[in-house]
Write a structure and sequence with these properties.
single chain, 110 residues, alpha+beta, three-stranded antiparallel β-sheet, two-stranded antiparallel ribbon, 5 strands, globular
Length: 110
């Protein structure tokens, strides 16, 4: 079993798979586009869609952020995108497979 974990501003994303998997979740928020000029995005939603792709891909390959956030992602990479809790974006990078996602509110656990 392979697994991967991501968290952002109080939200957690866990991914489990029979094959390699990379996941990322980010709260969509204001950013300094000049600082991240290597990501071509028109607004924050598009930026975080592309950012979560990059981060989930690097985690999928085992490289991590420090070894390639500026690298291009191969077209063969497979992604599934999800908007969660209204203002978060999540992305899963894995071999093409049947991906099921569950959104569980922390208040549901009380």
């Amino acid at each position: 079993v392979h697994f991967n974990l991501s968290h952002s501003h109080g939200v957690c994303l866990l991914g489990f798979s029979d094959t390699e998997i990379g996941v990322d979740v980010e709260k969509v928020r204001d950013i300094d586009f000049k600082k991240f000029d290597f990501i071509d995005a028109q607004d924050e939603w598009e930026f975080f869609e592309k950012w979560t792709e990059k981060e989930s891909y690097l985690k999928f390959t085992g490289k991590g952020l420090s070894q390639g956030i500026r690298q291009e992602i191969p077209e063969s990479a497979h992604f599934e995108h999800f908007d969660v809790f209204g203002d978060y974006h999540a992305c899963i990078c894995a071999e093409e497979q049947n991906i099921r996602a569950f959104e569980i509110s922390p208040t549901a656990l009380d």
